[in-house]
Amino acid sequence: MPNRFFFIFGGQTYKYKLMETETVLITGALGQIGSELAEKLKSIHGKENVIISDIRPRNEVDYDGIYEVIDVMDADRIKEVIEQYNIKTVYHLAALLSGTAEKNPLFGWKLNMDTLLTFLELAKDKVIDKIFWPSSIGIYGPDTPKEMTPQNTLKTPSTVYGISKLAGEYWCNYYHQRYGVDVRSVRFPGLISWKTPAGGGTTDYAVDIYYKALEEGKYTSFLKAGTYLPMLYMDDAIDAIMKLMTTDGDQLTVRTSYNLGGLSFEPTELAEEIKKHIPDFTLDFEPDFRQAIADSWPSSIDDQVAQADWGYAPQYSIEKMTTTMLDNLKVKLAKN
Predict the structure, then answer these.
(1) Which of 48, 80, 110, 256 is the most buried (most CB within 10 A)?
(2) Domains, the chain
(3) pLDDT tens, N- to C-terminus, the chain (336 residues)
(4) What is the DSSP letter of 1?
(5) Are the C-beta atoms of 310 and 14 separated by less than 8 Å?
(6) Separation of CA 181 from chain center
(7) b/e map of 286-308 (b: 16 or more CB within 10 Å)?
């Protein structure tokens, strides 16, 4: 049976590999991306082959599958789990996000940087075969073009999160060029999902606002009106990871990290969409330190390279996203 298939979209042919059953590890798996990525990977590999990990004790984790407690700063513990389960692919998601990292910059740097190097070294030594590691629009800064920010442009990050992600991109490229390490990455914009609460990022108002709309009928934004930021609904983010990880390596022209766009809106526009479902919803503003972070980031992203190399094609509009978020959160909150 062939292990590759071809997909034609917009006249372009993309070559993907079938994702064969293997044992994979997700770090930071209890976070926003990891919780949904784990379910997707279990549907492909089976729950016995998807090892999720985080720092919380097992008795505090509601997960149907194999969970290992891992402090990602502990390289010996990482190696122990990889050897125990013969893991060959790692989705390294553990990180300190923008708002949280600013409160403890040195720890944010160590967590975001040292742990990536641990996995790059393991891949260099052929202990593992492939790594997915997410970067962020946080790599950009106040000197970067804000509208349709291109794949390759000036990057002047102004946060420890952005600095660590930009350095990480170049480490990924270095290990690929020098040692042939198969590490793949995307620059995520703000991610929106109903399954996991916001986790401390500057774009997380676009998650919390839905909770507050249903629970309180009002929301106070820590970003001011008119602050446009790029966003992506989680289903599109997971689809992007799967496409990137199954694309033939010879089709990839970027080994730092691929730009991903999706949606671009500001708090008032999102509030107006919510009002279509909850007419009495109100929005006010109390900008905090995260406003300066948001002001240094792009307002929209040019992702043509990801489209051309591996067929990136997000499906969610702000209208579809809002309907999906509110419908699912009503059910979720009713159960709590």
Answers:
(1) 256
(2) 4-189+234-259 (3.40.50.720), 191-230+262-302+311-335 (3.90.25)
(3) 446 555 555 556 666 776 777 999 999 999 889 999 999 999 999 999 999 999 999 999 999 999 999 999 999 999 999 999 999 999 999 998 777 888 899 999 999 999 999 999 999 999 999 999 999 999 999 899 999 999 999 999 988 999 999 999 999 999 999 999 999 999 999 999 998 876 667 888 999 999 999 999 999 999 999 999 999 999 999 999 999 999 999 999 999 999 999 999 999 999 999 999 999 999 999 999 899 989 988 999 999 999 999 999 999 999 999 999 999 999 999 976
(4) -
(5) yes
(6) 21
(7) eeeebbebbbbbbbbbbbebbbe
Amino acid letter for position 253:
T
Q: Which amino acid is at 110?
A: K
CA angle, 180 as apex, 306 and 138 as ends, to 5°? 45
Mark whether 161 is an active-site residue.
yes
| CA distance readout (Å), 73 to 111, 119, 199 | 7, 11, 20
